Amino acid sequence: MAKKSKKNQQQTAGGTPATVALTAAGVAYTLHAYDHDPSHPSYGEEAAEAMGVSPDRVFKTLVADVDGTLTVAVVPVAGQLDLKALASAVHGKRAAMADPALAERTTGYVRGGISPLGQRKKLPTVLDASATAHSTICISAGRRGLEVELSPDDLTLLTNATLAPIGRA
């Protein structure tokens, strides 16, 4: 019971499971908050615009089903996920986007706020190899209107991610 209370206190103070995980790991990161506009057609593009960051440095978190296993794909918002490349990266045969409700239940986050960090259930994760071209990238911090900037190396380490070219323009 005390653990739940502490978690609630951290979240009340502005923390999310993603930021709690980063803090617990002692990883350097910067939070970027912005006012989320529900009418914007793209969560990721909205984040890039609001932060004034190039869309190739802002990464979206997508959940796909690879041969029956939910898998996290982290790709630049400037492009799209290549489902064949994702399947190949995890030695699978076929990948399709996961049902949004299942992705939300499994990760513990809402669509547009899914973070690869602090998920309810740890899922296999693949980070697009383009991330390594940047000293820092931005990903969802676990809710709409909140991004976390960190090094791609730290993200890879914390999520035990595979690096692979899974994005396409």
Give the radius of gyration.
Answer: 15 Å
Write down how many β-strands occur, each being a DSSP E stretch of 2 or more residues. 10
| Major sheet attributes | 5 strands, mixed
Structural class, from secondary structure content? alpha+beta
Unreliable residue stretches: 1-13
Count of helical stretches: 6
Report the mean per-residue pLDDT as an integer. 90
Overall shape: globular
Strand content: 25-35%
Order of helices and strands: HHEHEEEHEHEEEHEE
Q: In which order are the strands of the major sheet placed? A: 5-2-3-6-9
Distance between the termini: 47 Å
What percent of residues adopt helix (DSSP H or I)? 25-40%
Features:
alpha+beta, five-stranded mixed sheet, 169 residues, three-stranded antiparallel sheet, 31% helix, 27% strand, globular, single chain
